[in-house]
Amino acid sequence: MPHYLISFPASAMNVPAEELPVVGEAARQVIREAKAAGVYRFAGGINAAMPPQRVDGDGTLSQGTYPQTKDFDGGFCVLRLPSREAAELWAAKIAKACRCAQELREFFDDPES
């Protein structure tokens, strides 16, 4: 069964500060629903206060990130679902809870993972 990444950039979430607690609880409710359905794998938000670092194969550390991912922030979850259609339904639930559109991507199926 494939895994799906459902995510959004921080800039997409345009919610007044006083409404953030309500939005946070709505998002946690969807995650609780995903856990109860047995499809939840992982969720979280990128900590924007911690700058990204690149780590090379020889262990060399570099501050920053790839130019293509300089704006990688926001929240995400990974769900294991039977179909793209099921993933679209879960993404819609999360979009409603977070009050912003979600990006949906499918992971390659790797039997070793």
Describe this structure in words.
With 113 residues, this protein is α+β, with helices and mostly antiparallel strands. It has two helices and six strands, in the order E-H-E-E-E-E-H-E. It has a four-stranded antiparallel beta sheet, with helices on one face. Helix 1 packs antiparallel against helix 2 (84-98). The protein is globular, with a radius of gyration of 16 Å. The termini are close together.
In short:
By secondary structure, the protein is an alpha+beta fold. The chain has 2 helices and 6 strands. The strands form 2 sheets. A 4-stranded antiparallel β-sheet has the order 2-5-1-6, with helices on one face.
Distance between the termini: 12 Å
Helix/sheet category: alpha+beta
Q: Please count the beta strands (DSSP E, at least 2 residues each).
A: 6
Percentage beta strand: 15-25%
Shape: globular
Tally of helical segments:
2
* Major pleated sheet: 4 strands, antiparallel
Helix percent reads 25-40%
User: Any low-confidence stretches, pLDDT <50, length ≥5?
Assistant: none
Placed side by side, the strands forming the largest sheet appear as: 2-5-1-6
Oligomer: single chain
Note the run of SSEs as H and E.
EHEEEEHE
